[in-house]
Amino acid sequence: MPTPNAFTLQQMIFRLKEYWGERGCIIQEPFDVEVGAGTMCPETFLRVLGPKPYRTAYVQPSRRPADGRYGDNPNRLYKHMQLQVILKPTPADVIEQYMGSLEAIGIDLRKHDVKLEEDNWESPTLGAWGVGWQVMLDGQEITQFTYFQQCGGIDLDLIPAEITYGLERITAFLQDVDSVYDITWTPGVKYKDVRYTDELQYSVYNFEAAHVPTLWKLFEIHEGEARRLIDLYAESKEKERYPLLAAYDHVLKCSNLFNTLDARGAISVTERVGVIGRVRKLAVGVAEAWVDQQAVAA
Amino acid sequence: MNLLLEIGCEEIPDWMLSGALEYLRKAIGDLTKDVRQDGSIRTDATPRRLVVRAEGLIARQPDSEERVWGPAKSAPAPAVAGFAKKQGVTPEQLEVLSDGKAEKYSYVRKIAGRATADILAEALPQLILKTPFPKTMLWPGKGGARFIRPIRWVVALLDNKVVPFEIADVKSGNESAGHRRLGKYRFPVTYENFEEKLRENFVILSAEERRKRITGYATKFKQDGDLLEVLVNLTEWPTPITGNFDPSFLDLPGEVLTTVMKVHQKNFSVEAGDGKLAPRFVAITNTDGDPDGLIQHGNENVVRARFNDARFFWNADQKRKLADRVQDLANVTFQAKLGSYLAKTERIVALVRELGGGPPVRTPAPRPADSTHAERAALLCKTDLTTELVKEFTELQGVIGGLYAKAQGEPEEVATAIYDHYKPVSMEDSIPRTHAGQLVAIADKLDSLRGCFSVGIIPSGSKDPFALRRAAQGIVKIIVDGKLRLPIRHLLGSDAALTEFFFDRVRYYFREIRGFKYDEINAVLAAGSDDLIDIEERLTALQQVRPTADFEPLAAAFKRVSNILRQAEWSTKASPNSNLLEPGPEAGLHANFVAISAKVRESADYKSKLESIATLRPAVDLFFDKVMVNVDNPEVRHNRLALLHSVLTEFSTIADFSEIVTTSQENK
Q1: What share of chain A is helix, strand, coil (3-state, %, to 5)?
Q2: Domain A9-196 belongs to what architecture?
Q3: B138 touches chain A (CB under 8 A)
C-alpha cells in the first residue's frame, strides 16, 4: 500500500521546520561539532538551563559509531538525522501541537493508531534525565517526547518539552519502504545515493581503521582544554565574555571520541565507567559555569 | 449528594493506573468519612484520566460540641471573665464542674460542621498531588506541581456544582476531554451523563468493558493476561486488528518471534491448530477501526522489519561460535567492583565444580555426565551477552544461548542447561528442567549473592538493583523442588549478613509459598539444619504431628524446661545419676526418656520420631505435677537439672519445640 503522494525526506524537513517556526521556534541549522544526539547540542543542553524561555527547532545529524553496519542493515545507521524541538516552558497544549505536526507531514491521524507509551530518558554522560514517552504510530516508534527535569546535574527552572523525530524512520514509514536506503530524498535521489558511502567508510573507520593511541591522545587533549577552561572560569574577572561555549565544544569532542573508542573495542571494563565519569564531570562543569554566567549577564 | 472527580492528565504509564486508583479511593473515602452516609465510591481510569465517583454525600458535616476547660473554681473574677470572653459568652453562662481532679469553670462550645464543598475544595489539590507514583515530574517549572505527567483538566462536581480549586494553573470545572483524535477536545459533563458523554467521545471508562472489547475479538489469539492488562490500560477505545507475516519467518525460533510480537510490539501471537505459531498477530489499536487497512499495513511493516533484524542477527551471530566468545566476556561488565562477565564465568565454573564433585556435596551424588555438561554449560552460559540478538532482545538472554548452543552442535544437555539457567524468574516459574541446568542456575545466582554482598550491594526496602531477593528465592526453590542436597551454609560462606538474608528467603519460601506456620519454621531452623531438603522433611513431619493431642502440651512443657534451665543457668551436659532419682514420677520420667530415646533412634523417619517424642508427654506432666526441681539439696537439684537438660537436648534435634507457639499462649 505505497503512499503515492508521500513527502520526500527534504519536503518533510521543510514542513516540520515551517510548522515549528510558525509556533515561535527559532529555526537553527545543525550544530557543527559531532554529537550522538540532538540533545547534546548547546541549543538544547545549555539553553534548557536557567530561567529564560526558549523555543528552537533544528535538524541534527547524530553519530553513533557502535550502530554502524557498513550500510548493510536496512534500519541501522552510524549517522541518522533527528529533528529536535525544544519548547521551554512547555505549552499546555504541547501534545495537540505535536499531533498537528504529524498532520502537517501528511499523516491523517483519523486513519492511524497513535499511542504514547512510557519511555523515560537518562544520559549519564550529561548528568541529565527526564520522563516522557515514545510515540508509536501503527506500531512504529516515530518520536521521543521528554520532559527534561535535570541537565548537567542541575534542576531545571522551567521544564522544557523535547520532541525528537527520527526522520529516517518517519520518512520510511510514510514512503512505505522497507529500507532507509530506499527513502526518496528528493525526486530521483535515494537516501542510498547520498549516505551509503558515509555509512560504509565510517563503519570501516570506527570498527577497523581508527588508530586507538591517536584517539586516546585526542581525547586527552580535548579533555585538558575543556578542563583548563572550566577551571579558569571561576577566577575570571570578565565572566560575561568567558568562552564557555568553546569549552563545551571540547566536551563534545571527548564524548564522540569516547564513543568511537568504545565501538573500536578499545575501552576495557574497568576503564569504561571511569571515562564516562570524566566526560560527565566536564559536562557538569560547563553547565554549572553556564548557569552562573547567565545569571551574571542578567 | 454525589461527587464526580476526574483528573485529566497526559498519558499515564499503564502499570501505574491501579495503584493510583487504590490510593484515590482510600484518600477520598477518608476525606469524606464525616459527610458520606452509606454510598459507594467508584474509581475508574483510562490512560488520560483518573476518575472517582462517590454517592451518598451530605451537604455539610454534622455540628459537633467540645467541652473547654477554664480556670479553677477558686480563680479570681478577672480570670473567669477573660475565659468567658474568649469563648464569646458571659461568665454567667459558664458551668462549674469537676474535670476529675478539680472543680473548674467550663463551657460547651458548639462547632458548626463545614460545608462538604468547602472541605473538598480545600483538600483536593493536595490530595490529588499526593497520589503516589513511582517516578514523578515537575511542571511547568520551579514552584510548580509534581505528578506523574502534567494535569491538563480537572472535573470536580458536587451535585453537579463545580468544586472550585486550582492545580498548577488548571482550574477545576465541568469540562471533560474526549479521545485524542476521535472525540471533542472539551465538553461539559454531569455526574449522571459522564460515562455516556465519554462514550460519545470515544472513551470507554470501564476497564472491564475495554477488556471485553479485546478478548471478544473474532480472531482467537494466544491468551496472555499481563499483555491484556497493559493494553486495557493503554487504550481508551480499544479495537483489535489482525496482521499477517511471511510464513518463512516461522523458521526463526518461536521464542524470538513471540518476544518481538509481545515485548516490542505489544501484539498477541496466534497459534495454528497444532500449537505452533501461525503467521499472524493481533494488534490492539486505540481507535475505532482501520477501514483503509493503513494501520494493519503499518504494523505488518514493523513486525517484518523486526523479524528481518532478528534473522540478520541470528545469521551474523553464527559466524562466531559461543565457545569462541568466552574471552569476549572480558569486555562485558557485570558490576564495576566485581569485574567482567569473564571473571563471573570463571567463578560460576568453579562453583559448579564444587557443587557437582567436591566432598561437601552429600547424597545423592550427581550423575557424572551431568557434572561434565554442567561445567561446559557454565563456561558458555554468559557468552550470548556478546551476540547481536541478545543485545537486541535482552530479555532472551540464556534462551538465545541455549538455542545457539544447540544449533552449534553442543550436547543437548549443555544447550538445555544454558537455556534454563535464569530460571526460575518468579516463584510461579518452573525450575531448570535438568540437573545440569539446576547446578548452573544455582552457581550463577550464588555468585551474584556472594559477590554483591562482598562489595556492600545489599538489598534494602525497594532497592534491589541486582534482583538478589529473586536470586536467593530462586536458589531455595531449585534446591527444594529439585531435591538437591547441598550444604547451603557452607556455600554461602562466612558472610553473616548474607546468611541472614538467605535464611529470610528460606523462611519466606516455606511460609508464603509452602504454607508452613512461622513457629514451625522457627522450631526447625533453631534445631540447626542447613540442608533444605532435610528442613522440608522436618517441617512436613512437624506439621503432621502438630494436631495430635500430646504434641502442643509437650511443646509447652519443653518451653517450661527451657525456662527452668535458663533460670538455673544450667547448660552442662551430664547423665543423671540414677541412684539420686526419687522413685515415682522422677524415676518414671528417666525411664521413659531412656526408652523413648532408643525408640526415636530406631525410627526411620521424622514423623515416627516426633510421634515417639510426643509419647513422653504424660511422664513430663506427671514430673512437673509432683516433683520440685529447685530443692535445697544441691546434689538432687543438679541431678534434676541434668535430667531435664538431657530430655531437652535429646529431643530438640529435629525441631526446637520451645519455639512452637501453643494455642494457650496465643490466647493470652
Answers
A1: 50, 20, 30
A2: 2-Layer Sandwich (3.30)
A3: yes
Q: CA-CA distance, A143 to B386, in Å (whole number)?
A: 29
pLDDT 10s digits, B196-252: 999 999 999 999 999 999 999 988 999 999 999 999 999 999 999 999 999 999 999
Same domain, B43 and B165: yes
Same-domain pairing of B292 and B411: no
Residue B497 and residue B401 share a domain = yes
DSSP β-ladder status, B161-162 and A26-27: unpaired
* Residue in chain B nearest A88 by alpha carbon: B140
In A143-243, which residue ranges form alpha helices assigned H by DSSP? 167-175, 191-204, 212-235
A103 vs A6, A12, A164, B652, CA distance in Å? 12, 11, 16, 78
Residue in the structure block whose three cell numbers are 522440608: B536
Average pLDDT of every residue of chain B: 90
Give yes or no for residue B587 having a pLDDT over 90: no
- Sorted by sequence, the CB contacts under 8 Å of residue B621 that are 6+ apart come out as B553, B557
Q: Which of A76, A111, A149 to substitute to test the interface with B, most B CBs within 10 Å?
A: A111
Mean pLDDT of B144-160: 97
| B357 located within any domain | yes
A229 vs B635, more confident? A229
pLDDT at residue B616 greater than cutoff 90: no
Smallest Cα distance from A178 to chain B, Å: 7
DSSP state of B262: I
pLDDT higher than 90, residue B159: yes
Q: Do B295 and A75 touch (CB under 8 A)?
A: no
Domain check: are B36 and B101 in the same one?
no
> Could you tell me which CATH number the domain at A210-297 has?
1.20.58.180
Residue B382 CA to residue B406 CA, distance in Å, equals 15
Range(s) of the domain holding residue B651: 548-667
Query: Which residues from B are below 8 Å from A113, CB to CB?
Result: 283, 285-287, 290, 295, 298
Same domain, B399 and B362: yes
Percentage of chain B surpassing pLDDT 70?
A: 97
Same domain, yes or no: B237 and B378: no
pLDDT of res. B361 = 43
What total number of domains does chain B contain? 5
Chain A residue with CA closest to B147: the answer is A131
Is the Cβ pair A138, B182 closer than 8 Å?
A: no
